[in-house]
Predict the 3D structure of the following.
Amino acid sequence: ELTDSLIYLSRMEEPEKRQAKAEFCLSDAIEETAGSFQALAATQNKTFEMEIAPLLSFYGDEASIRQLISILLDNALKYSPEHGRITVSLQKKGKNLLFFVCNESEPISKEHLSRLFERFYRADASRNSETGGYGIGLSIAKAIVTAHKGKICAGSEGHSFQISITF
C-alpha cells in the first residue's frame, strides 16, 4: 500500500503527467464520496455535516478529485475525537470554487501546520502508525490539488482543524 502510494505521488508530481481531465459535477462527486463516510462517522459517534452548493461543475480528473476527498475525510475521521463534528463544504466565490473539510481536534501549532503536506510528516505522537496510514495522504492531496492548479492550506484555531482548497 505504501509503495503504491509513493508511486502514485511520484507520478502526480511529474510535470508532463497527463490526467484524464473532463468537465464533471463537482457537487455530485463530493456528495457521493463524502456520503460513503457518513455511516462510518455515525459508528464512531461523530456528527457529519455537508454544506454542498448544488450543480457546481469542474474541469479535472474526477477520479483524482474523489481520491482527494477520501483522503481528507479519512484524516478528519481519524483525528477527530469521539462525539466530534466533521463538516464538508463546497461553495462558489466569484470565479473560484472553495472546498473545506473541518473537524474538531487538538490544537496544532503553526510550526506543525506548515509541514503537514510533507511526506511522512506527523504533527504529534498521536498521529502515528497506530491510527493507520503512513503520513503520506496529505502529500498526495497536495499533489492532486497542484495538478489541478489549485491551492491547499491547513489551519487550526482552538479545537478546530480545517483544510481549505481553492480551485
